[in-house]
Each structure stands twice: as structure tokens, then as C-alpha cells.
Design brief:
The structure holds 2 protein chains of 2 kinds.
Chain A (H helix, E strand, L loop, with lengths): L2 H30 L6 H4 L18 H30 L1 H23 L7
Helix pairs in contact in A: 3-4
Chain B lengths: L4 H22 L3 H21 L3 H25 L15 H19 L16 H10 L2 H26 L1
Helix pairs in contact in B: 1-2, 2-3
Classes of the chains: A mainly alpha, B mainly alpha.
């Protein structure tokens, strides 16, 4: 096996150990613990208060806009990484390329700003 | 097919992806579907690693497993929950769907199974991020800049839709 794949074997082993760790802990405690359920015990814990409503409530659409803004700039940051590795080699050209990339995305941010979605009302 | 490390890893990952996919379309709890979707997406990044595409694998974890799953959760949170989280899985088109899927499967089997795939003796080398970056910022710089236009379109689109929603 190549050196590359055996390096990722460590990652795979880590994932397997992490999975087994949780599975064994939960499994053993499920077998060992006493099960005496009553309605009060089965309620979700909400700082000791009696919970009201379901756990799933409708959210404001503004959260979605924030999530999408995050996603878009997440993609942008991900592209900064390969750029950073070759910047020294490619020099000023790649700097201009990246600035154009960021500028186009900044237009979107300015549009969002002007539209007032960044303000919480 | 020779049985070696990568083949075993591929089979494990492929069965994880497929069983997660089956769970997603059969479960009645849509929240569980989202979290199992996360398992499928992470397993796909494992496939990318087997294909020596490390950067794509990292992007898969960062953007699909991280951000897109968050987006799907947000989209679910926007929906007014009806009584409970159960969803109806069935409709009248079940028979049609089975027939179409069956036809598609048989076409795939007829076309793909007898095909002898070309193999290359060339040795695969891992695509490092530096190598990827060099290609991206020289040969493929125009598609790279197009990505930002695409993202801009998505951004403006969601702002227009969301503000319409609020009115």
C-alpha cells in the first residue's frame, strides 16, 4: 500500500475507534442502568422549568439569509487555501486573480448590507 | 477485482453511502434523515481520498458536511412544523416510481456490466493542494472567477426570495 493511503488508514482507524467508543459507552449503560420511566422523567430538561411547546418551532427567515451568507463566504475561504500555497510561486498575478474573486463576492455582501438584511429588527 | 486495502475501503464506504441513502428515503423522521445525510456526505469524502483528491475531500467535509447540512437544517426550521415530525412517504406514484427505477437499473446493468473498462498503468500520485492551486490559478483561472459570479447569483437570489417571504 502506498504511503499516502496508509496515512489515511490512521484517519480510518481513528473514526472506527471514535464510533466504537460512543457505541460501547451508550450500549453498556443501556444494558446496566435500571429503567423505571414515568412521564416526568421522560420530559426534556429545560433548566428545571416545565417545558412548553415542541422542540421544533418555526424560525425567522432571517436566520436562513445569515446561513447562506455564511455558506458563500465559507466557499470563498476554502479557495483561499490553495491560493495561499501557490502565492509565493505565482506572485502578483494570482493576487490580482484572488482580488477579483473576492471583489465580486463583496458586491453581494454590499447588496445584502444595502438591503438591510444584516440588521436585526 | 483484486482484494486489497483500497478495494475493502471502497466497499465499506460504498455500503455506508448506499445504506445511508436508503435510510434517508425510507425514514419518517425528517430530522433523522438530515443527520444520516451527513454520514453519507462524509463517506463520499472518503471516496475522494481513495481517488487521491485530498483537497476535494477536505472541501466535501467543509462545505457539504458542514455548511450544506446546516443550510438544510435551517430550511427545515423555517417550515412550520405540523403535528409531530412525521412525514408522509407514500403517494399514488409509487408503482410508477418502481417501474421507472427498474427500467433505469436494467439499462445500467445491460450497458455497464459487459463493458470492459480501460485501465491505465500510470501510477497515481496524490494531488496536493499546491499542485491543485497551481493549475487553478493558471490554466483554469476563468472558471475560478466564474465561481464567484455563480456564488453572487446565489446570494442575490436568496436575498430577493427571502425579502419577498418577509413581506
Amino acid at each position: 500500500m502506498s504511503e499516502y493511503l496508509s496515512a489515511y488508514l490512521n484517519v480510518a482507524m481513528f473514526a472506527v475507534v471514535a464510533f466504537c467508543f460512543v457505541a460501547i459507552l451508550l450500549g453498556v449503560s443501556a444494558v446496566v442502568r435500571p429503567k423505571k420511566e414515568n412521564p416526568v422523567k421522560l420530559e426534556p430538561y429545560e433548566c428545571g422549568m416545565v417545558p412548553f411547546g415542541g422542540a421544533w418551532s418555526q424560525f425567522n427567515v432571517r436566520f436562513y439569509v445569515f446561513a447562506l451568507l455564511f455558506l458563500i463566504f465559507d466557499v470563498e475561504i476554502a479557495f483561499l487555501y490553495p491560493w495561499a500555497t501557490v502565492f509565493r510561486e505565482l506572485g502578483i498575478t494570482s493576487l490580482i486573480e484572488m482580488l477579483v474573486f473576492i471583489f465580486i463576492l463583496l458586491l453581494g455582501l454590499v447588496y445584502a448590507w444595502k438591503k438591510g438584511v444584516l440588521k436585526w429588527v | 477485482m483484486t482484494v486489497n486495502g483500497p478495494t475493502i475501503a471502497f466497499l465499506i464506504l460504498a455500503s455506508l453511502i448506499l445504506s445511508a441513502a436508503v435510510y434517508i428515503v425510507t425514514t419518517r423522521n425528517i430530522m433523522h434523515a438530515v443527520f444520516v445525510h451527513l454520514l453519507a456526505l462524509s463517506s463520499v469524502s472518503g471516496i475522494y481520498i481513495l481517488l487521491y483528491a485530498q483537497f476535494i475531500a477536505a472541501m466535501q467535509v467543509l462545505i457539504y458536511a458542514g455548511a450544506v447540512t446546516t443550510m438544510v437544517l435551517f430550511a427545515l426550521m423555517l417550515v412550520k412544523p405540523k403535528a409531530g415530525m412525521e412525514i408522509a412517504l407514500d403517494n399514488q406514484q409509487k408503482g410508477m416510481a418502481f417501474a421507472t427505477a427498474g427500467v433505469f437499473l436494467s439499462v445500467l446493468l445491460v450497458v455497464l456490466v459487459p463493458k470492459v473498462w480501460a485501465t491505465s498503468q500510470e501510477k497515481l500520485t496524490p494531488l496536493t493542494v499546491a499542485k491543485f492551486g497551481k493549475i487553478l490559478f493558471t490554466k483554469y483561472v476563468l472558471p475560478f472567477e466564474m465561481i464567484s459570479v455563480l456564488l453572487l447569483v446565489a446570494l442575490i437570489g436568496v436575498l430577493v426570495l427571502a425579502s419577498k417571504e418577509e413581506e
